[in-house]
């Protein structure tokens, strides 16, 4: 899906194993994340309880829009699971795969931000299945993740998600 908007995820039936992290998105170096792939649009959802309607934090990782991952070994829930919140950590395309623009209709750019917007929409539509309240979602981030937060607060594409 090079240089295209993200597509809604395909559903599945039955139990889906979430015990192993999928690959990180392709980035300039394999020094930190050796397992990288173009098929990398995923998010990790951490919840202490499923039966309640808890506030939600959606976290966008750091890495200057060029590196990083939502993998649990990079950004896990260790400090938040005793706080009665649902934590969602989002993966999005990085570097040229996420932000290259040719300045015309062929590659308009900002696909990484579109990935994040799609994740926010998914959270709004599905977080109740994980014990989260879709009406109490806070977006957060560090470094480029905080830049993403700012951009989502001013983007019409992110309103209502």
TrEMBL record:
<feature type="domain" description="Carboxylesterase type B">
    <location>
        <begin position="3"/>
        <end position="160"/>
    </location>
</feature>
<keyword id="KW-0325">Glycoprotein</keyword>
<dbReference type="InterPro" id="IPR029058">
    <property type="entry name" value="AB_hydrolase_fold"/>
</dbReference>
<dbReference type="InterPro" id="IPR050309">
    <property type="entry name" value="Type-B_Carboxylest/Lipase"/>
</dbReference>
<dbReference type="Pfam" id="PF00135">
    <property type="entry name" value="COesterase"/>
</dbReference>
<dbReference type="InterPro" id="IPR002018">
    <property type="entry name" value="CarbesteraseB"/>
</dbReference>
<dbReference type="InterPro" id="IPR019819">
    <property type="entry name" value="Carboxylesterase_B_CS"/>
</dbReference>
<protein>
    <recommendedName>
        <fullName>Carboxylesterase type B domain-containing protein</fullName>
    </recommendedName>
</protein>
């Amino acid at each position: 899906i090079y240089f295209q908007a993200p597509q809604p995820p395909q559903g599945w039936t039955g139990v889906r194993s979430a015990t192993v992290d999928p690959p990180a998105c392709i980035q300039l170096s394999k020094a930190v994340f050796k397992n990288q792939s173009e098929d990398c649009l995923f998010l990790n959802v951490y919840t202490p309880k499923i039966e309640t309607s808890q506030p939600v934090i959606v976290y966008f990782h750091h890495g200057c829009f060029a590196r990083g991952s939502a993998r649990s070994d990079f950004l896990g829930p260790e400090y938040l699971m005793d706080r009665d919140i649902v934590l969602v950590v989002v993966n999005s395309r990085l570097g040229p795969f996420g932000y290259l623009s040719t300045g015309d209709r062929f590659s308009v750019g900002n696909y990484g931000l579109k990935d994040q917007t799609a994740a926010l929409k998914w959270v709004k539509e599905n977080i109740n299945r994980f014990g989260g309240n879709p009406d109490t979602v806070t977006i957060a981030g560090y470094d480029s993740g905080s830049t993403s937060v700012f951009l989502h607060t001013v983007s019409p594409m992110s309103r209502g998600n």
